[in-house]
Please model this.
Amino acid sequence: MAVGAGAALGAVALMARYAPELDALLLMPSPPPGRLDARPAAPRLPEPGAPSPPPPAPLSPSSTPPAPGTAARADEPAAPAPGSPPDVSAPRGASAAAPAAPLVDRFAADPAARAACPEDMTLVEGDFCPDLPYVCARAGDGAGHGCPEYARGARCRAAVDPRRFCIDRHEWPNRVGELPRVYVDWYEAKSLCASIGKRLCRRSEWILACEGPKRLPYPWGFVRTPSPCNIDRAAIAFDIGAIVDEATREDEIARLWQADPIGSHPNCISAYGAYDLSGNVDEWTDNLADDPSTARPATLNGGYWGPVRNTCRLTTGGHGPTFKFYQAGFRCCADTVDGIVTPPPRPFIEHRDGEKDDVYD
Model:
């Protein structure tokens, strides 16, 4: 009963999360009664004339998806006990069987990063701007993201805060070829990060990792398209009743699923070496660590695969920490391990008069 009530409250909060695009989504026709297409969305076709990709490498035994209710590997906790919400990290109908091609990661051989961070993380070292305006340079159609291009030359309006930390290269479980995990709430995300000696990223850490030293509104620049990331796929009308009901939840998430396996977008990378910060799945961040007085401890950053806000700084703050939905995932951060002393981060307390539609501007 508590799970159903929490999901129902999350659905109410969802109305604020996806304004203005939710109106159009809810007007879409529902599937015919008794029919639920659980097939994943078709992959994007390559550009004309582009070389064919190499065939995927076969799965090794260690990369075979675990059976339901078991741990993915020794350092990841097992799925919830019977009676708990099902693990929908790999929705039925959305296959993770074929791992992506190996990434050519220009950050992997960086000696400073390798000394400071574990191999599955990348080093972020730079100045965080606590007050940076995003100014739209060109009017859009108002759907989803609203602004097709942001103005260049924005100046930080507050004293910068030097930061040095590690961030996961990819969304949880941070393993190339696997599907990003979704349908976890903020508490679960924090617990999973802590279980492997990491922490949920501060909101400010996530923003800095995405914007890079040039403070870009997107990891790749100022113009929304063409994007190297998984964004702007067509919205699919969701059935909130099917998501709330544990018996139908996995199939409904599979029907809605348009995220790609980890490593599918090697050019969707920030200047610090973190992948898929924009798009693919929403990512929980820890606003409470930045602002201990906040009434919004749990925040979501980066947006997901649909036509929604996917910038580095715009943050969803309207959901509580028990909210979970079909597109909400996370990644982890950690302190550096090379012994270089870095001052602790200052509080990041954003102006409240800029809030609208439960989105921090």
Observations:
- Residues 1-89, 95-101 have pLDDT under 50 and may be disordered.
- The chain has eight helices and eleven strands.
